[in-house]
Specification:
Layout (H helix, E strand, L loop, with lengths): L1 H12 L4 H14 L4 E7 L10 E4 L3 H9 L7 H8 L4 E3 L7 H12 L4 E8 L5 E8 L15 H14 L1 H11 L5 H11 L4 H8 L3 H15 L4 H11 L6
Antiparallel strand pairs: 1-2, 1-5, 3-4, 4-5
Helix pairs in contact: 1-2, 1-6, 8-10, 8-11, 9-10, 10-11
Amino acid sequence: MFCDLLESSSVLSEAQDEATWSETLGDLGREQGFEYTLFAILPRPGLPFEDIFVKGNYPCEWREVYDREKYAQVDPTVRHIFSESKPLLWDESLFRSDGERALYRGAYLHGLKSGIVLPIHGPRHETGMLCLATSDAPGTGVWNGINRRMASLSLLRDTAFESAQPFLGNHLERVIPRLTRREKECLKWMSCGKSTWEMARILNCSEATINFHIVNIRTKLGVHSRSAASLKAARMGLLDQA
């Protein structure tokens, strides 16, 4: 089965667009016995959760409810991926608080009764998961012999992450704030601890111009101080572009 999956998952790397890639990932999930597949990546630590890259075949109605009710704030599977690297098998027993139980009831009504979360931690501080879900109850159906198939599922996760890189790059271009050349220069020197006066001398412009650019930088990053702007920019990888 491992060799079959290795050969099949190579098809992911051949996908030319996100829709084909997502459909192929769902097909591979079904080959593993799971009706539902969700791939989600927060590509940079400083991005808001709303900017997460999400693909999969979870029921659209459930995805809308999940987002509207902000269930990510109480979802124990989300907490898990930010603190653990090991896979997590989930079912009703994982959801204990009132908010968590409401989340599980909604998922259950849409056919998501149990599943497995495989965390993703990328080399550029990406955080995410490959989640495979089923309508089978724990101990039945796909769960029989699940430990023997864990290597295959981990391979599917790793292949999904690697093959998704072009799409993640496109996603980042859409969600990361676009800074002008002058804003990037100001950000670089501001992050080095330079004062407005020093930056004005370095960039050969007035202090008012420097302050104008810094206000724009803070607005685009959604922060209220220079230190917060520098920290968030570093987490987003913007200083690498400066």
